[in-house]
Amino acid sequence: MHIQTGDTELLMRAAEPGDDDFILGLVPRFVDFDLPKGRKRVEVTEGIRRDLRKHLDDDMPGSFLYVAETDDGKRAGFLHLQIVSDFFSGRSNCHISDLVLTRDWDGRGLGRAMLDFAERFAREHGCERLTLSVFPGNERARKLYADVGFETDILKLAKPL
């Protein structure tokens, strides 16, 4: 499926084994901001890398990884979607587990286009909600999410011990 950002059209395609290094190479972008008190950058990075590695290596049901690619084959970002069961209703939700762009695509509308893709995917799969999690310090992403209609559903609070 193609997505549009400005005057550029990109292909959203299923991730392939040859994309693993590209995907894992973007993990540091998930911690390019202040982390919550008690969270260590190296632990967060390794936790994300470990989870992605599991989804890349195993054909996990309900897990869908996509790569955004330009018409000349240059990869611009990736999106990881998961079909999950809503805790309260039991109905299907689509969770945006990971969404990240290469630095040169920041501010060009690709994040918004990938969110639109995720919403279409969720609707096509009969999901009740589109969900995601975001660190409080990731203000740029939080603004984008609010701009496209995401609202707080549940707050997860933590007390470092």
How many structural domains are formed by the residues?
1
Main beta sheet: strand number and arrangement? Answer: 6 strands, mixed
Which CATH architecture would you pick? 3-Layer(aba) Sandwich
Chain-averaged pLDDT: 95
Please state the CA-atom Rg, rounded to the nearest Å: 16 Å
Question: What is the spatial order of strands in the main beta sheet?
Answer: 1-2-3-4-5-6
- Specify the helix fraction band: 25-40%
The N- to C-terminal Cα distance equals 46 Å
Q: What is the strand content?
A: 25-35%
| Uncertain runs | none
CATH topology (level 3) name: Aminopeptidase
CATH homology superfamily name:
Gcn5-related N-acetyltransferase (GNAT)
Shape: globular
Overall structural class, as computed from helix and strand content, comes to alpha+beta
Q: H/E element string?
A: EEHHEEEHEH
Features:
161 residues, Aminopeptidase, 29% helix, six-stranded mixed sheet, 4 helices, alpha+beta, 6 strands
Explain what you see:
The chain has four helices and six strands. The protein has helices spanning 20-25, 41-57, 110-124, 139-147, and strands at 2-5, 8-14, 63-69, 75-85, 92-101, 129-132. It has a single domain, classed as 3-Layer(aba) Sandwich (Aminopeptidase), CATH 3.40.630. The chain has 161 residues and is an alpha+beta fold. Helix content is 29%, strand content 27%.
